[in-house]
Amino acid sequence: MSAPPGISGQYVNINSGGDEVAWLPVAKAKHFTNAFVVDEKGQRILLGYKKRGIGQDLWNGFGGKVEEGETVTQAAARELKEECGIEGRPVPCGFLLFTTAQNTSFSFFIHIFRVEEWTGEPVETDEMRPKWFSTNPDQTTSESDSPSIPYDGMWADDIYWLPKLLAKIPFQGRADFSVEENGPSGGAMVKWWFGEQV
Ligand SMILES: Nc1nc2c([nH]c(=O)n2[C@H]2C[C@H](O)[C@@H](COP(=O)(O)OP(=O)(O)OP(=O)(O)O)O2)c(=O)[nH]1
User: Fold this and answer.
1) Whose CA is nearest to atom 4 of ligand 1?
2) How much distance in Å is there from the Cα of 180 to the middle of ligand 1?
3) CB of 108 sitting under 6 A from ligand 1
4) ipTM, interface predicted TM-score of the complex
5) Is the CB of 175 under 6 A from ligand 1?
6) What does the domain layout of the chain look like in residue ranges?
């Protein structure tokens, strides 16, 4: 399948699926960030449990809307600090075009970052409850007390691209949802496409 509307460039290792329906129209871009702190040495990733707003009750990276006058990287660093109290250096690693049939007035242009350098300890805020998860699929609890990544409690598309972020493979893709909420079994995701950039 060729890249869907809104995604340009050359890709390999494409993973796509969902219903045989047309992609939703790409509307005016609203830019968001999403940053994942990865502790390579400790084989763990920091996620936050979203306490309110879009994606409430899901585990996710830290991020939000890009404000006027700031770059997406500046926005990623600001949101990381606001949502879990740590200062980090976000490095761009992927892009997700997220659209919902519920809201067609704009499309979510989500800039995804990896953070390997940071200072401070994560703290709980009004928006997020941070927690470390293991990035080593073979390691359960013996050497680390971090549980494995809770894909069942995340946005349904994340399982297609978070492994690429962990492997430092640049990716782009899109996911069309029926509604802005993610059902318990990810039932709101209608169609998706993810590829690795060449
Ligand atoms: N991992 C992942 N993140 C997503 C998906 N869809 C989606 O909007 N997000 C992210 C992008 C943003 O980081 C976040 C939504 O932005 P937000 O947290 O600012 O939204 P909000 O309305 O709750 O914000 P706020 O103004 O109350 O702070 O959710 C998805 O499919 N997967």
Assistant:
1) 155
2) 10
3) yes
4) 0.94
5) yes
6) 25-197
Determine if ligand 1 sits within 6 Å of the CB of residue 60.
yes
pLDDT by residue for the chain (198 residues), tens digit each? 689 999 999 999 999 999 999 999 999 999 999 999 999 999 999 999 999 999 999 999 999 999 999 999 999 999 999 999 999 999 999 999 999 988 889 999 999 999 999 999 999 999 999 999 999 977 655 455 789 999 999 999 999 999 999 999 999 999 999 987 776 556 689 999 999 998
Domain with residues 25-197, CATH architecture: Alpha-Beta Complex (3.90)
Q: What is the DSSP string of the chain?
A: -PPPTT--S-EEEEEEEE-SSPPPPP-EEEEEEEEEEEETTTTEEEEEEE-SSTTTT-EE-B--BPPTTS-HHHHHHHHHHHHH--EEEEEEEEEEEEEETTEEEEEEEEEEEEEEEEES-----SSEEEEEEE--TT-SSSS--PPBP-GGGS-TTHHHHHHHHHTT--EEEEEEESSSS--TTSTTEEEEEEEEE-
* Nearest-CA residue for atom 2 of ligand 1: 155
Q: What is the pTM of this model?
A: 0.94
